[in-house]
Amino acid sequence: MRSTRLRWGGYVVLLIAFTTGSMLVWSSIDRMRDEVRRGGIEINGIGDVFWLEREFHRLREDVAMFGTGGGDIGRDDLFLRLELLWSRCRLVMEAQTLAHVRADHPVTPLARALLLALEEVERRLSSLDEGDGAGAQAILALLDPFAAPVQQLSVDVEALLDATTQHLSSKFAGLLNGLDSLAIGAGMASLTLLAMFVIEAAVARRAREAIVERERALRHLAYNDPLTGLANRRNMVEHLPVALDRARGDGRGVALMVVDLDGFKPINDNHGHEVGDALLVEIARRLGRLSRPHDFCARMGGDEFVFVLAGIVGESEAFCIADRILEEIRQPARVRGVEASVGASIGLALFPDDADDADALYRKADMALFSAKSAGRGKIRRYDRGIHEGIERRKSIEDRLRSALAEGGLEMFYQPQVVLADGRPDAVEALIRWHDAKLGPVAPGEFIAIAEDAGLIGEVDAWVLATVVARAARWTGAAGQLRVAINLSARMFGQDDLCDVVLGHLSAAGMDPGRLELEITETAVLAHTETTLTQLRRLRSHGVRIAVDDFGVGYSSLNYLKRLPIDQLKIDRSFVADIERDGDDRAIIGAIRSVAAALHLDVVAEGIETRAQEHYLRSIGCERGQGFLYARPMPEGDLLAHLEKRASNTRLPAAEPAHGAFT
Amino acid sequence: MGIALSVLVVLLAPYAPSRADMLPSPTGPVLLTVSGAVQNTNAPGEARFDRAMLDALGLRELVSSTPHTQGRPVWRGVGLGALLHRVGARGERAVGFALDGYSVGIPMDVVERYDPIIALEREGKRLRVRDGGPGWVIFPWDEHPEITDQAFSGMSIWQLERLRIE
After folding, report:
1. B135 and chain A: CB distance < 8 Å anywhere?
2. How many Cβ atoms from other residues are within 10 Å of residue A570's Cβ?
3. Which of A45, A113, B54, B156 is most buried, most CB within 10 Å of its CB?
């Protein structure tokens, strides 16, 4: 902006300077031209003075000749000469062009005197005869006195002529110089204008280029992901219909893949966004390298990418490419000094088989991705009808779960754990139950997984913890002595305020921490962080017991278990179920028992349904158990009634197992 | 035959001198002779004019100052253009010759543009030779300030006695 004003200011100043200069030069030229013209007229006038001298001498010569009678001069010629000289005398007296001569020289008196003489000459000429030498001499004598003054006048005006000529020639030189200056000024002005045009054209051109460049940059910004440089969501949304139109035109297929990274969030959480971002850039680079010329790759945001593969022949080709994408992503990457490794899940939908328009195609690929994620990590799923239904159910479960959390649709059941030796219940496991008005009963395994994916698990955990602690704290009598085991999600165990939250609930409800047992799955323990261990240690120090749930299905090593701050192992129901048939399972249970004994851990067996199972477990020294053989999970009221009944009749036989009920 | 003659007459008409073009011969003293590229003559190769013939062309007055005179005299004379037209002048300039031997060329386009007169009288009095007569070419200086340069003062020939069309 500022430079534009400066530049134009410069042009204007230069042009004004040149124009003013030229005008000054022009006016001086005009003045000089005027002088030169006047000078020319003066020179002309001066010429008339010479004519006077010339006519004077010619009259004298002709008179003298006529006096000798020897020439061919007639009287008429003499009169003509007289007339001519007369007219010259009149002229030098009268002509404007001789005004300056008359001002400096005694022209007028001389001419007037000469005219007087000429009157006399005229009179005498009438009576002069040819060959009358005396008469002629008399006439010449009349003229003689004027010879010297006339000649002197000529000499004087000659000097004047010289001066005027000199003056004129200097004026001419000035005129020429002025013309030169004018030409130079005009040239400079033209050059300035030319330069102005050239510069302005260049500036305009640059400005245009800058605008084009800025537009390009803005467009790039609008259509590309700033982090990875890949196309962005908007770009994909605009590109996909175009790709489909083109494919419609040449009758070929298009595969749409939605790629979602597995295990990216922990990298972001543990190493920071810098590393996470660098990893995304690296993965985008690999995906870009995989793209063929007509393929389209976009980052949709977060850790989700999309591939639009044009000219796909069939499902197998799409799966082939998806495999290569997974393979590329799985390669470990070293970014910012961190060895980072992620996987990916891919949802796939094919045009035109799965959907006929861009929106539906994307939605279906997204559903397929959802399904792939649900099926575990690192999977590739193509959309099919089942996926659609599964996803619809997940969606409605998610929606209903939200309202259940908000409106109190969830409830807690409790299943007693007994001392195998005498069947006396000494603890209960709190189990979440949900019977939805529309969906009917929903298994915890199903809705907990959905709650985890939907980010609702924190609320579920909080609700379970608050509800169970508040209820159990109120129990009295035999129930008031029971330990209560709660299952919390792996996510909850990752929180660094777990201990404070739990103790807060306990103290608010006035419940003894020693009555609370938290169950953590083996896989959650395996994925532990220092935070988890710290929280578990703190909880134990306050008397809260920690149990490892579903023990035996993971891969815990003895050495590893030793380091964990835990109190009890729960033998997974799958081992218990096959005790009577499967020797291996028996061996595993025996081994677990030995390990627990070695580490001074309690053992409780889950899912005991028969006396034979109970018998075996007791035989290997398993002290406690839980299962339908003793009691099903039941609502709080039933539990309390059950306990009361049992207390009044300690010899009451245990209930028969109820088949098909919740476990 | 009659028709053919008529056609010939029609065709030749623009070239045939009309009656008005016939120059009479001077009866008084010859004041001005026009020679050179002229079509209408009354002597071998030239057209001679006496005062009556010049008067017959129509005199007009011109009031103007000149470089060679004082004041703004009333000039009266014959238009140079009218004179040249009368003699059927076909040239680029008229060269004037004066009694004192001076001569100067006057371009035809100058004649056309400024329409000078050959003055025969000044302030109602006939120009004698001593007054610049018999003819004095006068330009309308006062009407055309732009012609105040020496070329015009040079073309303002006095004591004009002869013109030659070139």
Report:
1. no
2. 26
3. A45
Q: Which amino acid is at A190?
A: S
Q: Which residue has the tokens 């969501």?
A: A233
DSSP string covering A258-271? EEEEESHHHHHHHH
Residue to substitute from A83, A97, A116, A164, interface B, most B β-carbons within 10 A? A83
Chosen from A41, A52, A88, A116 to mutate, greatest number of chain B CBs within 10 A: A41
CATH architecture entry for A414-648: Alpha-Beta Barrel (3.20)
CATH class of A233-383: alpha beta
Question: A642 vs A309, A411, A467, A479, CA distance in Å?
Answer: 63, 18, 20, 10
d(CA A57, CA A102): 21
- The answer to whether the CB of B16 falls within 8 A of the CB of B29 is no
Chain A: nearest CA to B80, how far in angstroms? Answer: 23
Three-class DSSP category at A636: helix
Tokens of A550: 């579903």
Distance (Å, rounded) from C-alpha A244 to C-alpha A352? 9
**Closest by CA position to A265, among listed A377, A370, A404:** A377
Query: CB A97 to CB B67 under 8 A?
Result: yes
Domain boundaries, chain B: 20-165
- For residue B61, the cross-strand partners are B76
Q: Which CATH architecture has domain A2-199?
A: Up-down Bundle (1.20)
Facing A96 at nearest CB: one of B67, B129, B158 = B67
Across the interface, do A40 and B150 touch by the CB < 8 Å criterion?
A: yes
B144 vs A: CB within 8 A: no
Q: What is the pLDDT of residues A101-143, one digit of tens each?
A: 888 888 889 999 999 999 999 999 888 888 888 888 989 998 8
Low-confidence stretches of chain A (pLDDT < 70) are 1, 37-38, 40-42, 44-45, 525-529, 552-560, 650-663
Cα A329 to its chain centre, rounded Å, is: 26
Say which CATH topology domain B20-165 has.
Answer: Sulfite Oxidase; Chain A, domain 2 (3.90.420)
Which pairs count as long-range contacts for A452-455, CB under 8 Å and 24+ apart, including other chains? A452/A489, A452/A491, A453/A373, A453/A374, A453/A394, A454/A398, A454/A401
Q: What is the pLDDT of residue A556?
A: 61
- Backbone φ and ψ of A339, nearest 5°: -85, 110
Q: Where are the domains of chain A?
A: 2-199, 233-383, 414-648
